[in-house]
TrEMBL record:
<dbReference type="Pfam" id="PF07686">
    <property type="entry name" value="V-set"/>
</dbReference>
<dbReference type="InterPro" id="IPR036179">
    <property type="entry name" value="Ig-like_dom_sf"/>
</dbReference>
<dbReference type="InterPro" id="IPR013106">
    <property type="entry name" value="Ig_V-set"/>
</dbReference>
<dbReference type="GO" id="GO:0009986">
    <property type="term" value="C:cell surface"/>
</dbReference>
<feature type="domain" description="Immunoglobulin V-set">
    <location>
        <begin position="43"/>
        <end position="131"/>
    </location>
</feature>
<keyword id="KW-0732">Signal</keyword>
<dbReference type="InterPro" id="IPR013783">
    <property type="entry name" value="Ig-like_fold"/>
</dbReference>
<keyword id="KW-0325">Glycoprotein</keyword>
<dbReference type="GO" id="GO:0007165">
    <property type="term" value="P:signal transduction"/>
</dbReference>
<comment type="similarity">
    <text>Belongs to the immunoglobulin superfamily. CEA family.</text>
</comment>
<protein>
    <submittedName>
        <fullName>CEA cell adhesion molecule 12</fullName>
    </submittedName>
</protein>
<dbReference type="GO" id="GO:0002682">
    <property type="term" value="P:regulation of immune system process"/>
</dbReference>
<dbReference type="InterPro" id="IPR050831">
    <property type="entry name" value="CEA_cell_adhesion"/>
</dbReference>
<dbReference type="GO" id="GO:1990782">
    <property type="term" value="F:protein tyrosine kinase binding"/>
</dbReference>
<dbReference type="GO" id="GO:0005886">
    <property type="term" value="C:plasma membrane"/>
</dbReference>
Length: 283
């Protein structure tokens, strides 16, 4: 049996290069059919900004598309219906005069207000009458003070690592969690709705409750940080942390998580050392 110490540094380098080559080839040999995605630019806007709900990878056989406010394609919430062939739009009941549908399917909303915050739904029909539905979300905050209820809040969230690929483990690292808290709550999105709750933690009972969607992929840290395992494109979006202090003066922080696709943006090698570094935060 060969002694592991007998492997030279040159041998190790060769194996690493080979593994890297195989990984890159595997990534590029994946099917090239790209899924439709919607990205809010910016995901967190200030009142008065323009927001673009940017549609990527719209299929060539799309015939018509419609944008709606809210999470469902209901007629009363329709903003506009757009015909690709003629590049023409028919305004719906929810059109405020500030929205414009582009021929690539994207929706431009001008001079946004805080009431514009929330979910938007895109419904498309192709030439075979097949329907697809996608959703996007953005948040509008007040200038300077933003969304925080407490003007002196230093609550902050960072991603570790800062660039996120599919199947990575990502830590939403919390800084400056206030003292004397009853607990804290994480939500997918910006509104404190139970349906979008990811997890809640109580310091009074030292217990954590996880949402069903993330039950097998989530670890909650006592400092408020959140470890999400094996992320996918569906995890892209806004995440909000809300504190529950004893004096009920709640503070919030919001971040936008973007999960990159290796086919579209290239491939990044993640070492075992970086994964171990992430996990040590919650131990």
């Amino acid at each position: 049996m060969m002694n592991s110490d007998a492997l030279s540094c040159k041998d190790c380098t060769s194996w690493q290069e080979l593994l890297l080559t195989v990984s890159i080839l595997t990534c590029w040999l994946l099917p090239t059919t790209a899924q439709i995605t919607i990205e809010s630019v910016p995901p967190i806007a200030v009142e008065g900004d323009n927001v673009l709900l940017f549609v990527q990878n719209l299929p060539e056989n799309v015939q018509t598309l419609s944008w709606y406010t809210g999470g469902k394609p209901l007629k009363m919430f329709e903003i506009a219906r757009h015909v690709i062939a003629t590049n023409s739009s028919v305004m719906g009941p929810a059109h405020s005069g500030r929205e414009m549908v582009l021929n690539n399917g994207s929706l431009m909303i001008k001079n946004v207000t805080r009431k514009d915050s929330g979910y938007y739904t895109l419904q498309i029909f192709d030439t075979t009458s097949r329907r697809e539905i996608m959703r996007a979300e953005f948040f509008v905050q007040r200038p300077i003070l933003g969304f925080r209820k407490h003007p002196t809040s230093q609550l902050k969230i960072e991603f570790v690592p800062p660039r996120i690929e599919e199947n990575d483990d990502i830590l939403l690292l919390v800084y400056n969690l206030p003292e004397n808290l009853q607990g804290f709550v994480w939500h997918k999105g910006v509104f404190p709705v139970d349906h979008f709750k990811i997890a809640s933690h109580s310091f009074l009972t030292n217990s954590t409750m996880l949402g069903r969607t993330y039950l097998d992929r989530l670890t909650v840290c006592s400092d408020g940080s959140l470890l999400l395992s094996k992320v996918s494109q569906e995890d892209t979006g806004l995440y909000s942390l809300r504190t529950i202090p004893v004096d009920l003066m709640s503070e919030s922080a919001i971040v936008y998580l973007k999960v990159n696709n290796c086919l579209a943006l290239g491939w990044t090698l993640a070492s075992c050392g970086s994964e171990a570094a992430i996990r040590c935060f919650c131990t």
